[in-house]
Design goal:
heterodimer; A: alpha/beta; 6-stranded mixed β-sheet; 4-stranded antiparallel β-sheet; 10 helices; 10 strands; B: mainly alpha; 2 domains; two-stranded antiparallel ribbon; 2 strands; about 5% strand; flat; binds adenosine-5'-triphosphate; binds magnesium ion; P-loop_NTPase (chain A)
């Protein structure tokens, strides 16, 4: 993967009140690369959502600089272009559905950006298709499942042809099926359209399949790197309030148990299973 | 749960397919025109127009009755008040200060019919037009008011968001009611005061959640580039056709006709 930077976050500080003692974000340095899937994780209140809202100018950092494709978020003229480039899916499927029907909701963002109606209709159809919701165009939100509503939210965003989509715990209120559907759609968009995905999640299984992972703690970035590297040193992660993925826990338990010699490379479920069964066949 | 907002009855009639703006103007004009009529003959014309509209809309009469029901009491009350307190013509029945005259009866009948026609025409509008179309139609008709800084767009947006959230909030109310009922709160029986008290623990969580929703929604709207009316395009468009122009001509032709038929 080429490492073209799409978002630069430089020395960013943020607090919710001007006189607050504690900062919600402290000295954040982070680059996001074009086309990558970046997972951000951390305990409740560690500042993940705050950081996400800074990336499209919903919140303005007190110090530091954030640039999206060379547009500074402090530049009022660039703000609307930044909001088009950086789409955001929030946690509660109901509280971000604006339209009275699926069509109206997908069109909402396009209406805001003044996209001409003929073009709007074409994009509407294409984006509903991209999230597998064509048959539901006329449905009202109360007749959709949570996962379907989140996919409609994604359709509304990709209709604006964004470069980055931020999922702020977008699957945490969904059942496993809805969650899988939403993530599958995002993965497809990531691969086919090269949309950069920033996924904020408490689910470390999901985070472990990301290209890169960031762990936050009390407003700071405390770990950053490939998930396999981060989980190779699970010590300390539990103290940061994270629940380890099953494979990592299992490997730790097997190691503590002794006898079994495991390499440090097995990381995904498949790798671990492979290693375990080849291990026993060697005995 | 299947919630129908408003009274809209889906259909494919001419009236259903008309531009909401022409229907809004027509009903508004009709409600005023009704007051021109004051003779039996002019009333007959209005009644014929109303009946024709009902027939064209292909809406079943029971739906119209359902729309009338809440206002029926008012109509009957108006009838009685007019019948007993208007004294003209000759007396039909008298008992002390209590008198029924032919003039009173006539006045009562005319006024109730007038009210009835106003209610039927507005009901017909809501039966054949979705609430969102009515909202959009109003936004478009009131558009010129934007020049005097009247927040037309904001009101329309407010309306459409309310329409969108009514089912959500109703579902939520039901959920909270069940949760409270599981803890032994009685909503449907017991003394009135106690029932009113039971509503409070229902309203408070509902309000708190509505505020949270409002905050989230505002954030989501801004994230999707909402910045008011300026530079906005619209997905929903209206189609003004021949039938819309004809409807308006018809309605305005009623004015001279009724004027001639006045007594
Ligand atoms: N609107 C607000 N006003 C004041 N303080 C806030 C506000 N939103 C968040 N905070 C505070 O800022 C800090 C970071 O919150 P943030 O929502 O970014 O955390 P998070 O990592 O997204 O948590 P979660 O996993 O619960 O979503 C927390 O201490 C929180 O209490
Ligand atoms: Mg959060």
């Amino acid at each position: 993967m080429d490492k073209e930077t799409i978002i630069t976050i430089d020395n960013v500080w943020f607090r919710y009140a001007d006189d607050a003692e504690d900062w919600a974000l402290q000295d954040i340095h982070l680059d996001v690369y074009s086309g990558e899937w970046l997972a951000i994780t951390g305990h409740n209140g560690s500042g993940k959502s705050t950081l996400a809202k800074c990336l499209n100018g919903l919140l303005m950092p007190e110090k530091g600089e954030i640039k999206v494709r060379d547009n500074a978020i402090t530049d009022a003229n660039a703000l609307w272009e930044i909001r088009r480039l950086v789409g955001m899916v929030f946690q509660n499927p109901d509280n971000q559905f604006v339209g009275t029907t699926v069509r109206d909701d997908v069109a909402f963002g396009m209406e805001n950006h003044g996209i001409e109606r003929g073009d709007m209709l074409k994009r509407l159809e294409a984006s509903l298709k991209a999230v597998d919701m064509q048959e539901f165009a006329e449905r009202e939100p109360h007749r959709l499942s949570g996962g379907q509503k989140q996919r409609v939210a994604i359709a509304g965003i990709i209709a604006l042809e964004p470069a980055i989509v931020i999922l702020d715990e977008a699957t945490s209120m969904l059942d496993p099926r809805g969650k899988k559907d939403v993530l599958d759609v995002m993965r497809r968009l990531n691969e086919e359209k090269g949309i950069t995905v920033i996924s904020i999640t408490h689910d470390l299984e999901e985070a472990s399949s990301a290209d890169r992972m960031v762990v936050m703690d009390r407003g700071k970035v405390v770990r950053e790197g490939q998930p396999s590297h981060i989980f190779m040193e699970p010590e300390g992660l539990v103290e940061l309030g994270l629940d380890l993925p099953f494979t990592v826990k299992l490997r730790q338990a097997l190691k503590e148990h002794g006898h079994i010699q495991l390499s440090d490379k097995a990381f995904t479920q498949k790798e671990l299973v492979d290693e375990l069964w080849t291990l026993s066949s060697k005995i | 749960m299947n919630i129908i907002i408003g009274q809209y009855v889906p259909g494919q009639s001419v009236i259903h397919r008309m531009d909401p703006r022409s229907k809004l103007i027509a009903v508004f004009a009709f409600v005023i025109i009704v007051f021109i009529a004051n003779s039996w003959l002019s009333y007959a014309v209005l009644a014929a127009v109303t009946c024709a509209a009902i027939l064209l809309s292909q809406v079943q009469l029971r739906f119209i009755y359902r729309g009338l029901r809440p206002i029926l009491f008012v109509i009957i009350l108006t009838f009685l008040l007019n019948a007993f307190f208007t004294r003209s013509g000759h007396e039909l029945f008298g008992y002390g200060w209590f008198q029924l005259t032919t003039g009173g009866l006539r006045q009562a009948a005319l006024i109730s019919i007038r009210l009835l026609m106003i209610v039927i025409s507005t009901t017909l509008l809501t039966l054949t037009t979705t609430p969102i179309d009515i909202t959009d139609g109003l936004e478009s008709l009131l558009g010129p008011l934007k020049k005097i800084r009247f927040p037309v767009h904001e009101f329309a947006l407010m309306m459409s968001i309310s329409l969108r959230f009514i089912p959500t909030l109703m579902e939520e109310t039901e959920k909270i009611m069940k949760a409270q009922a599981a803890r032994g709160v009685e909503f449907s029986s017991g003394p009135l005061l106690q029932r009113i008290k039971a509503i409070l623990p229902l309203l408070i969580p509902l309000f708190i959640s509505a505020f949270r929703r409002a905050e989230d929604l505002a954030m989501a709207m801004e994230a999707r580039g909402y910045r008011g009316d300026e530079g906005r395009t619209k997905l929903r468009v209206f189609h003004w056709g021949l039938r819309d122009t004809s409807l308006l001509i018809l309605i305005f032709l009623l004015i001279p006709v009724l004027w001639l038929l006045r007594s």
